[in-house]
Amino acid sequence: MAPRAGPPDGGWGWMIVAGCFLVTICTRAVTRCISIFFVEFQAYFGQDYARTAWIHSIVDCATMLCAPLGSLISNHVSCQVGIMLGGLLASTGLILSSFATSLEHLYLSLGVLTGLGFALCYSPAIAMVGKYFNKRKALAYGIAMSGSGIGTFILAPVVQLLIEQFSWRGALLILGGFVLNLCVCGALMRPIALKEDRKTAPGLLEQDYVPEAPKQDLKQLSICSPLIKAWSHECLCYCSWKEYDFLLMPGFMVLAVSVLFMAYGCSPLFVYLVPYALSVGVSHHQAAFLMSILGVIDIIGNITFGWLTDRRCLKKYRHFCYLFAVGMDGLCCLFLPVLQNFPLLVPFSFTFGYFDGAYVTLIPVVTADVVGTSSLSSALGVVYFLHAIPYLVSPPVAGWLVDTTGSYTASFLLCGFSMIFSSTLLCFARLAKKIKRTHLRSLTNDTHSKQHIWTNGAIAYSVTGELDQKDAEFLAVDTSSYSNR
Hints:
Blueprint: H1 13-33, H2 38-45, H3 49-65, H4 67-76, H5 79-97, H6 103-132, H7 137-179, H8 182-188, H9 218-243, H10 250-279, H11 284-308, H12 312-315, H13 318-335, H14 342-371, H15 376-386, H16 388-405, H17 409-449, E1 452-456, E2 459-462, H18 469-484
Antiparallel strand pairs: 1-2
Helix pairs in contact: 1-6, 1-7, 1-8, 3-6, 3-15, 3-16, 4-5, 4-6, 4-15, 5-6, 5-7, 5-8, 6-7, 6-15, 7-11, 7-14, 10-11, 10-13, 10-14, 10-16, 10-17, 11-14, 13-14, 13-17, 14-15, 16-17
């Protein structure tokens, strides 16, 4: 297949968007709905908040920690193979979880195995959208990532109904069969070759020459094999380095640190929103309905922010739109402890869900703006990898604070301040970069204004009409020595 000059921005790309949409339903929406099982697990196994919260933490952590593995399989084997394999692993983990006899069993099956399966699907599917779209990239990502919100809106009440009808074991078994749809999503991911993806190594890799030689005898093969081995090792090392050379980019480093704090702040809310609502007197169905509201508004945030940031007036301000959305979610978390009834929690779900959908849509877009399309798959693997430790640590830490203080206030305040710090850090980094660029531009203009036009003897003329005395003396000596020759 001949490489294309650029992304098609349509055609089969819309099927890629549909496939990524289904992937986000089967991964992120299912992960969010695990919080509905929280109270069931706590009651059945008789454990506290902190120990039960490790289930959700391990799922999220394994999904993000193994994201580079998903990118590696996608880059070197096939995106289709990686997503199908991930679907099988995730389904197996959920089915095995339905037979759990302890929390440790759930840690391994629902946490590690299901999370690993989600990891093999999530980042490769998102990266494929970036390869098929350029001009309408944010809109495509908005539609694809809205699967998380739509899935949460639909699955939250469905999962609650399944738990009531078939217990938590039957609900997990049905979810295991549902997640097998990831294999169908993988079949849609048709690979595409772009010219900018072709990275050349020194020497032979710079030539697009593939010899079609006749059969060689064993003697010639034995002579050439050491050379082939050395050359292939050099090429492999070079390609591996080029695949991750974006790690040294200052812009990506700042984004990575910002992602760490953002991930710490956003994870506990999806674990503790339902238990917090139940603790203030909200019914089980109303608590599940809060998750549904959050999910459906998440969709609106995905699509509207994706469409808006594709407009010409906002396209170059995508970073600021991203940090604004993260900061607004942080403010929502700060106000959550004072919301003590269902009518007040509904506006919270609206606001938090909208801005959550907004920044989730912009994560791959901002990453692509920083590293470029050719490194997007590997960069997304690293970005989602950075989510792993915060996702692992934050829910148990929040649960420990609840067990220690007897309220959710400290947990939600810590989440809010973490997300606001993430937004502030990225804002200051962007402002510092802009100031540095302005300073360099002014220095460049000063340099151009002092360029010499021509000299005549000891007199030198410049654009400004003035010249330093030392420069004039140097030019006088130089021109006189030249005329003496």
